[in-house]
């Protein structure tokens, strides 16, 4: 009986034979069936987590654990846990005195009448907006004809919607329901001229309103003309400027900011705000209906057209839909990678297996992410891991199969097991180095304070490792199986809040954006410090100091500091609990009793728990800084606030020196600050880890230094190109900068390892040629596939996919150029020769007489197996492995 031993096949043409089909059944269908059965039956019974939910795309994009974010979380919990505190003590402690005072504070609400056929709503809420512009570049919209056309266009849009009447604000006579008129320039002109509707206005009406705006413009600029001047007194403002709040709303909401007396009130853009309630469940359906009506055609008339429209919150719904529908672009990238891998690997089954490893690695990482790490939140950024993994997985597949073919060529008579072990000896180390550096770059994101970035780094790094495990276990097995069969036949002013008695702590799970923990009361807060003479004086001086600050605008409620309100309440004739002629500061007991009595006003600032115990102090300040996305403006504002407050706390008496200031509108600023601080640390960690891994892998100081110099050059020119392309620091940009080190080292690492393992170590140019010949083709194909992955994503309208594709293209081009022409050039000129700069892996590695190594050759295209006499630990290991191969082959 003759034993048949499968050997390497020299046929490398693309093939898909019946043996491929059999291998496909064994290697893919059986594992896929097992996975499906686990997902359908076993996984749900074990309490498996639900599928990721991307209904809130911005969830998780917030810093956690920083000093500023702790304050913001404490404020959020302060409002989310009202049972922990109260502005009022229990009813029994204040008696019936509240009712008398409350009744004296009641005010009658004013009602407004107007002459419009469909009146305007009393409240203006911007939930929907249409913006109109002139068709010609120099045409003025402030004429009767164009304004009437704008009204007509809007009416045609809204009348075509069957859902608008269900969600609009309006009036009912018991029989019919009529929507209010939209807040538009045409309707306000009709209202101010006693017309019944927008279509009735004339050029004289428009001229009257234009002259009115000219007269009232100085008051708006000086901010003496404010919102709701029609229902409250605005000193020094003429009555016709406050009528119906028309002038304020026109300047604030309905005209562009370039319209002014200096350009004769030239109007380029005007907006219209329909009265949408936003409380009906059909609002999203209304937006869908209107968006479907407007996205394909732009309504307009002669001289005017619809320039844009705004639906509140609708962009997040569109983003959620686009995120899923535009998965087609990463899918197209995978198809192109599949075709290139098929061309390079020469086998459909091996190509399919390589992509299956990537998909399987994602699923396995998700299982670890949810079941082992116990993380419930899955941000949409984690989906982009698939894009990174396609390039990395293809790189590993190319490297393994390239070394496999070279090993087969060098050892034509070796059996499958011997070739597999020999290939893994080289490929596993090379893939481990690239996986470690790339995963470390992702894991460096865990140091960020932004929840979504931390979770992305954790998930992406885990995916890299799971993919590596599959590439050294599952993929080699399929390659061996495939070769065995083939060989036998083949992506308005902000409010500042001052607290005492509340801890600025975030005790929730920083990896779960839904878990903010509980509100923590400061047990060290002593109410005696608050009511002491020193405490009363300090708080009053604090109010005086606030009013002198450049960022101060006003106090809310009665436009008075809470301390001044308390003093006025305590000494007023109606509630003279401290005495009409009492002097400040008041006795501590008297001040406490008086504040308890006045607590129903809600602006005394004293906080009570459910037992009526005073647990803290809190009051609000309205700043003159409006919310903006500009980091510089917000940073200057917040630094001036904290600098002022820290100076005041240094003068505070004991017991009041632990106060802190916060603001609820600093989410974006905190995010930007977290990004600016975390990006550089992540980049530094990535580069440091890359150097460490390179040094541990090659054990050569100079190769590691040259590699890091190359990587720094790649990162620098890549980031420079991204800056020239208009990139600004944000979530994705932060990830890209930190990941750049991991992706930049791959090709340089492969060349460095090959340079280190070259047989002839005495000649630099020989070692460089060895590196380029053995690994150059695989690196070129890996760079090409990843470049095409990015190229396919350049057509996406989702910014994440577009920028990711742009980054992948740049980093692949510069990585290939710098590693091939830069790193190898450095090595050819000043690269280490022999063992210069080499660190010994163990002290027992010495030069010993060479032994016979048999016929199994190292995969070298230049020298035969008998010509390779290497020194060092690697030579010792290779000889031992070769002996094992000989004995194993003899037994087979």
Automatic annotation (TrEMBL):
Membrane-spanning residues: 21-43, 352-372, 378-403, 424-444, 456-481, 701-729, 735-758, 779-802, 808-830
Pfam families in the cross-refs: Sterol-sensing (PF12349)
One biological process term in Gene Ontology: smoothened signaling pathway
Native organism: Stylophora pistillata (Smooth cauliflower coral)
Disordered: annotated span: 89-117
Ranges of residues in domain SSD: 358-481
PANTHER family documented for this protein: PROTEIN DISPATCHED, PROTEIN DISPATCHED-RELATED
Major localisation: membrane
Similarity comment text for this entry: Belongs to the dispatched family.
Protein name: Protein dispatched-like 1
Domain of life: Eukaryota
Keyword presence, Glycoprotein: yes
Localization per Swiss-Prot or TrEMBL: Membrane
Keyword annotations: Glycoprotein, Membrane, Transmembrane, Transmembrane helix
Any one GO MF annotation of this record: transmembrane transporter activity
GO cellular component: membrane
Keyword Membrane among record annotations: yes
Membrane topology: Multi-pass membrane protein
Biased composition, class Polar residues, residue ranges: 89-101
């Amino acid at each position: 009986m003759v034993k048949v031993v499968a050997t390497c096949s020299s046929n490398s043409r693309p093939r898909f034979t019946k043996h491929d089909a059999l291998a496909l059944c064994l290697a893919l269908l059986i594992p896929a069936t097992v996975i499906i059965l686990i997902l359908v039956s076993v996984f749900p019974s074990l309490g498996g987590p639900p599928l990721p939910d991307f209904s809130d795309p911005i969830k998780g994009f917030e810093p956690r654990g920083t000093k500023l974010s702790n304050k913001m979380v404490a404020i959020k919990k302060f409002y989310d846990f009202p049972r922990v505190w109260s502005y009022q003590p229990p009813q029994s402690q204040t008696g019936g005195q509240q009712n008398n005072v409350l009744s004296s504070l009641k005010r009658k609400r004013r009602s407004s009448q107007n002459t419009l056929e469909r009146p305007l709503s009393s409240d203006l809420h911007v939930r929907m907006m249409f913006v109109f512009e002139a068709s010609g570049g120099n045409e003025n919209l402030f004429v009767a004809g164009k304004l009437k056309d704008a009204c007509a266009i809007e009416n045609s849009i809204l009348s075509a919607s069957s859902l608008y009447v269900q969600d609009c604000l309006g009036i009912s006579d018991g029989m019919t329901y009529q929507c209010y008129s939209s807040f538009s320039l045409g309707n306000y002109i009709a209202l101010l001229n006693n017309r019944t509707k927008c279509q009735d206005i004339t050029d004289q009406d428009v001229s009257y309103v234009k002259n009115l705006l000219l007269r009232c413009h100085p008051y708006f600029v000086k901010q003496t003309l404010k919102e709701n001047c029609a229902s409250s007194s605005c000193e020094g403002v003429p009555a016709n400027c406050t009528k119906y709040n028309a002038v304020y709303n026109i300047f604030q909401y309905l005209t562009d900011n370039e319209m002014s007396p200096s350009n004769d009130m030239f109007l380029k853009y005007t907006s219209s705000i329909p009265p949408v309630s936003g409380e009906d469940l059909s609002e999203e359906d209304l937006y869908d209906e209107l968006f479907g009506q407007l996205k394909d055609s732009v309504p307009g008339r002669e001289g005017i057209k619809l320039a844009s429209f705004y639906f509140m919150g609708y962009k997040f719904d569109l983003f959620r839909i686009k995120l899923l529908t535009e998965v087609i672009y990463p899918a197209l990238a995978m198809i192109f990678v599949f075709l290139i891998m098929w061309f390079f690997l020469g086998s459909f089954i091996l190509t399919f297996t390589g992509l299956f490893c990537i998909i399987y690695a994602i699923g396995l990482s998700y299982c670890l992410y949810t079941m082992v790490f116990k993380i419930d939140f899955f941000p949409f950024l984690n989906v982009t891991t698939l894009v990174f993994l396609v390039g990395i997985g293809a790189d590993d597949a190319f490297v393994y199969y390239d070394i496999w073919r070279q090993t087969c060529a060098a050892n034509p008579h070796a059996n499958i097991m011997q070739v597999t072990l020999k290939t893994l000896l080289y490929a596993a180390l090379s893939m481990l180095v690239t996986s470690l550096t790339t995963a470390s770059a992702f894991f460096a994101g865990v140091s960020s304070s932004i929840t979504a970035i931390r979770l992305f780094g954790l998930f992406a790094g885990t995916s890299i490792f799971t993919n590596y495990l599959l590439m050294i276990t599952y993929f080699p097995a399929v390659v061996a199986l495939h070769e065995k069969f083939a060989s036998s036949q083949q992506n308005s002013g902000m409010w500042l809040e001052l607290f005492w008695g509340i801890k600025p702590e975030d005790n929730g799970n920083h990896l779960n954006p839904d878990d903010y923990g509980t509100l923590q009361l400061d047990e060290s807060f002593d109410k005696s410090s608050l009511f002491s003479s020193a405490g009363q004086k300090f708080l009053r001086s604090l109010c005086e100091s606030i009013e002198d600050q450049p960022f101060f605008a006003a106090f809310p409620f009665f436009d008075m500091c809470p301390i001044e309100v308390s003093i006025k309440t305590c000494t007023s004739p109606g509630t003279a609990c401290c005495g009409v002629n009492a002097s400040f500061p008041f006795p501590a007991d008297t001040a406490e009793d008086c504040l308890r009595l006045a607590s129903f006003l809600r602006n005394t600032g004293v906080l009570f728990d459910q037992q009526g115990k005073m647990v803290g102090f809190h009051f609000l300040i309205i700043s003159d800084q409006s919310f903006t996305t500009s980091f510089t403006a917000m940073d200057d504002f917040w630094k001036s606030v904290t600098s002022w407050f820290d100076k005041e706390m240094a003068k505070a008496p004991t017991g009041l020196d632990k106060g802190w200031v916060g603001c609820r509108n600093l989410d974006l600023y905190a995010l930007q600050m977290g990004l600016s601080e975390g990006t550089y640390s992540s980049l530094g960690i990535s580069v440091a880890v890359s150097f460490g891994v390179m040094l541990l892998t090659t054990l050569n100081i100079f190769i590691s230094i040259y590699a890091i110099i190359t990587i720094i050059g790649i990162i620098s020119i890549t980031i420079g190109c991204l800056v020239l392309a208009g990139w600004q620091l944000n979530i994705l940009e932060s990830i890209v900068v930190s990941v750049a080190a991991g992706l930049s080292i791959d090709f340089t690492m492969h060349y460095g390892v090959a340079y280190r393992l070259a047989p002839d170590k005495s000649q630099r140019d020989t070692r460089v040629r060895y590196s380029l010949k053995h690994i150059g083709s695989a690196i070129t194909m890996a760079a090409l596939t990843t470049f095409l992955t990015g190229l396919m994503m350049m057509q996406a309208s989702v910014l994440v996919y577009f920028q990711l594709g742009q980054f992948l293209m740049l980093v692949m081009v510069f990585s290939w150029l710098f590693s091939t022409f830069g790193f190898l050039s450095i090595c050819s000129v000043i690269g280490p020769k022999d063992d210069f700069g080499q660190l010994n892996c163990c002290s027992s590695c010495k030069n010993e007489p060479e032994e016979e190594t048999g016929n199994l050759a190292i995969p070298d295209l230049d020298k035969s197996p008998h010509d390779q006499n290497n020194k060092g630990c690697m030579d010792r290991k290779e000889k031992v492995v070769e002996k094992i191969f000989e004995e194993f082959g003899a037994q087979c």
